[in-house]
Amino acid sequence: MIPYEEMMDGLKEKSGLSKKELDKKVSQKYEELGGLVSMEGAAHLVARELGINLLVKKRKLKISDLKDGMKSVDITGRVSMITEPREFSRKDGTKGKVSNIFVSDGAGSIRIPLWDKQVDDLKGKIQEGEVISISNGLVKINNFGNIELRVSTFSKIEKVQDDGSIPFEKPNARPLAVETDINMIKEGFFSVKGNIVQLFKINFTYKMCPKCRMKIEEEDCPEHGKVKPETNMLVSAVIDDGTGNLRVVFFREQAKRLSGIEPNVLSDLGQDAAYDALKKAVLGRDVVVSGRVQRNKLFENLEIVANDVQEINPVEEGKRLIDEIKTLVGGYEGGKD
């Protein structure tokens, strides 16, 4: 077992709490259990309650190594851009604030969204071009199908010494989607055109904290406590273009755009009725879907996370096909002797 003092040093580093606060928590846990566990065991229980794993010796990761769902992530990179804070109004009438830090490490780049108090806490403390360390982050896929690194009260962002090894890189704009047939699909950013042929029966709605945008149960956010949650939706379907088929995941705005149904309406229907409503709304639709193609970790097959969905205009599509046929016929006739 890890020595007690080493455990407390690890807890202090990862939690941001003082040694005095941690000693108090561990002592309370020890007394609560009537001495049935050792002080080291009590420290492990406190660490678990704080969402910290003391058994894993973490290593600094490259941004290119990051995958959706990774927890307690530590990276170091150079700040390539900091966006101006933007204020917005939530559905409950409260005001919010968001800013983004873009960081690169020579192997990749990533966005770190900051919300509300996080924006104020870091204002003026970090500048573009400086090297920073981010510890205890969570990797998630955002609405654009890209991964981002989210930080909580247990995370830490701080300036570190610049040894010149990390180049300065301006953040890339969102990559352009490459049009392709499904049978030629691979990991990357692509656009496919086809017909929605299947809808998976899942939990179509979920609750989200309006402050940190994290998925939550009922009204309890691990970081912000009791909140008035927002209801969002998720649609998982299969698109077929005649060359193959591909699972497509639509989150939030893209799910609403595809179905034309509001999340709160689905939530009130219950799963069976929601499934029937979505089937009527989406099955048989001809659409163009753009997004990031990635490998599903559970089934090991490719899927596309949509960041844009557009319905195909049959008139425009007919004109396009006619022009394509004319081009092919013209090329054939021009090649004849």
Q: How is this structure best described in words?
A:
This protein has 337 residues and is α+β, with helices and mostly antiparallel strands. The protein has three domains: 4-49, no CATH class; 63-159, Beta Barrel (OB fold (Dihydrolipoamide Acetyltransferase, E2P)); 178-320, OB fold (Dihydrolipoamide Acetyltransferase, E2P) (Beta Barrel), CATH 2.40.50.140. It contains eight helices and 17 strands. The strands form three sheets. Strands 1, 2, 3, 4, 5, 6 and 7 form a seven-stranded antiparallel beta sheet that branches. Strands 9-14-15-17-16 form a five-stranded mixed β-barrel. The longest helix is centred in the C-terminal third of the chain and has 21 residues, at 314-334.
Coarse morphology: globular
CATH class descriptor name of the largest domain = Mainly Beta
Structural class: alpha+beta
Helix run count: 8
Span between termini: 83 Å
The helix fraction, in percent, is 25-40%
Largest sheet: 7 strands, antiparallel
Mean pLDDT: 84
CATH superfamily of the largest domain: Nucleic acid-binding proteins
**Known CATH architecture of the largest domain:** Beta Barrel
- Please state the oligomeric state of the protein chains shown: single chain
Task: Identify low-pLDDT runs.
Answer: none
Radius of gyration over C-alpha positions, nearest whole angstrom: 24 Å
Number of domains: 3
Number of strands: 17
The share of residues in extended strands comes to 25-35%
